[in-house]
UniProtKB/TrEMBL annotation:
It catalyses: L-alanine = D-alanine. The keyword Isomerase applies. It is an enzyme of class 5 (isomerase). Pathway: Amino-acid biosynthesis; D-alanine biosynthesis; D-alanine from L-alanine: step 1/1. Keywords: Isomerase, Pyridoxal phosphate. This is Alanine racemase. The active site is at K34, Y261. It comes from Candidatus Planktophila limnetica. Belongs to the alanine racemase family. The modification N6-(pyridoxal phosphate)lysine is found at K34. It comes from the Bacteria. GO terms for molecular function: alanine racemase activity; pyridoxal phosphate binding. The keyword Plastid does not apply. Its EC number is 5.1.1.1.
Length: 371
């Protein structure tokens, strides 16, 4: 499998990023490892993150949390997208903290806890202005609920615009959060852990820290927002993943050759084309234009449409590349190669989507063996 494409993961870079973020914010760090650790590999990244100083792990799905427990992770784990009807029995058995954002969810968790004869650990999610997850309309009903079967470990919320520092909505969300913490206190519930900040807020908004921050994209060395915060490099982050692939074939073609499906592109002059052995089934966006690969100090842009398993790049007529050579699809940019930021921009998307969509056919190869 690994003879055509691989995602190289530098866990020492991950460790450096976490240590730095933890030092800068001075509160507990929850490492966000949902979606297979943003494509970087759930288990290896989680162990490395804890070793580097994170004290919590955060995932979206219960299955992700259970996989961590089954792989020997004993640190506290919060799963925040656990809908009513989920297997709360397993969550309780595995000592997994559950994010709760509805009365229905809270009641089902209480039922499971009663059956298990053990209190469930929950974090109450509140909607402070994003209108996505969290209590809002049902907040007024919460005071009448029965909390006897749960330990309320945390209260949390999520920013909509943390990647735009200075936006009034960020200030409003912090105020609303403080108010909701207070209202919960008024009914006698005082969770020890209060958390609101994501990566962008952790880097730019110290009033949002409370007792813990939830760090995702920045831990992987990527910028939360190219437009408002600058590149990963501008932020001094070390990108953790490098995607590389093999040139399946290099060949010379004459000027005016149509390239790929739909003949959407044409060679401008006599040139060498490289067929790169990775495609949209592996997460390379089909619409990407303006990115490409890097070989021996030189960028080679995509020409034509990305196919399912491959895409074509224009290497230039003087290229020394040969069939079977490896090229960098994206890396940390230090040699001049394209970055995940570049691929995001080239696809009208963001680096988050580029890394999380790298498919299961691409093996993850870990470069720091101490983890
Ligand atoms: C994904 C997620 C995060 C991490 O966001 P980043 O921008 O990657 O730091 C934090 N909190 C919640 C609730 C999330 O869903």
């Amino acid at each position: 499998m690994s003879d055509r494409a691989e995602f190289l993961i530098d866990l020492s870079a991950l460790s450096t990023n976490i240590a730095r973020l933890k030092k800068e914010c001075g509160v507990d760090v929850l490492a966000v490892v949902k979606a297979d650790a943003y494509g970087h590999g759930l288990i290896r990244v989680s162990h490395a993150a804890l070793k580097a100083g994170a004290s919590w792990l955060g995932v979206a799905l219960l299955e992700e949390a259970i996989t961590l427990r089954e792989n020997g992770v004993e640190a506290p784990i919060l799963a925040w997208l656990v809908s009513p009807g989920s297997d709360f029995d397993s969550a309780i058995t595995h000592n997994i903290d559950i994010g709760v954002s509805s009365i229905k969810g809270l009641r089902e968790i209480s039922e499971s806890a009663k059956r298990a004869g053990k209190k469930a650990r929950i974090h109450i999610e509140v909607d402070t202005g994003m209108s996505r997850g969290g209590f809002l309309d049902e907040w007024k009903d919460l005071p009448t609920e029965d909390f006897s079967q749960v330990d309320v470990i945390g209260i949390f919320s999520h920013f909509a615009r943390a990647d735009e520092p200075g936006e009034q909505q960020n200030i409003d969300q912090i105020q609303r959060f403080q108010q909701m913490v207070q209202e919960l206190g008024d009914i006698g519930i005082n969770p020890p852990i209060k958390h609101l900040a994501n990566s962008a807020a952790t880097m730019k908004d110290s009033p949002s820290y409370f007792t813990m921050v939830r760090v995702g994209i920045a831990m992987y060395g990527l910028t939360p927002d190219l437009t408002h915060l600058g590149t990963s490099k501008d932020l001094g982050l070390r990108p953790v993943g490098q995607l590389r692939a093999k040139l399946h074939l290099v060949k010379s073609v004459p000027a005016h050759s149509p390239v790929g499906y739909g003949a959407s592109a044409m060679t401008q002059s006599d040139t060498k084309l490289g067929v790169v052995a990775i495609g949209y089934a592996d997460g390379i966006p089909r619409i990407a234009q303006g990115a490409g690969v890097f070989f021996k100090g030189k960028k080679a842009p995509i020409i034509g449409r990305v196919s399912m398993d491959q895409f074509v790049v224009d290497l230039g007529s003087d290229s020394t590349a040969q069939s079977g050579d490896w090229v960098i699809v994206f890396g940390d940019g230090s040699h001049g190669e394209y970055t995940a930021d570049d691929w995001g921009r080239a696809s009208s998307s963001i680096n988050y989507e580029i890394v999380t969509r790298i498919g299961p056919r691409v093996p993850r190869i870990y470069q720091s063996h101490e983890y």
